[in-house]
Amino acid sequence: MTIPGNLKYTKDHEWLRVEGNEAFIGVTEYAQGELGDIVFIEVETVGETLDKEETFGTIEAVKTVSDMFMPVAGEILEFNEELEATPEIINKDPYGKGWIVKIKITNTAQLDELLDAAAYKTLIGA
């Protein structure tokens, strides 16, 4: 299982790739594996500013529907439109083309509260 060292992680299995004061958010390889085949992504929060741990959307798989939570406070700038037609990109490339939203970080201090790759590996028992 791949757990890139350049990302931050949450206990809820989201990842965050920081680029300046913006970041991309997705779900980890572990999460997509647990969910199974992803069939639908719903994000209706573009343009909204949300607090850390608020729900920004849902991810639907064959087995279940799960909420996705903000790793840090921020404004949802963009939804990955490719996921509307091909949500299974998340199963194939969760850390690349399978990103879900792009945000503008409003509280950079919260980045220090996220897990690094080693701590995330410990969390999932990898």
N-to-C span: 8 Å
Quaternary status: single chain
- For this structure, what is the CATH homologous superfamily? RNA polymerase II/Efflux pump adaptor protein, barrel-sandwich hybrid domain
Return the CATH architecture. Beta Barrel
Question: What value does the Rg take, in angstroms?
Answer: 13 Å
Derived from helix and strand composition plus strand pairing, the structural class reads alpha+beta
- Dominant shape: globular
CATH level-1 class: Mainly Beta
- CATH topology: the name is OB fold (Dihydrolipoamide Acetyltransferase, E2P)
Number of helices: 4
Give, in spatial order, the strands making up the sheet with the most strands.
1-2-3-9-8-5
Helix and strand element order: EEEHEEEEEHHEH
DSSP strand (E) fraction? 25-35%
The count of strands amounts to 9
Which consecutive residue ranges, at least 5 long each, have pLDDT under 50? none
Helix content: 10-25%
Q: Mean pLDDT, nearest integer?
A: 96
Question: How would you characterize the largest beta sheet?
Answer: 6 strands, antiparallel
Number of domains: 1
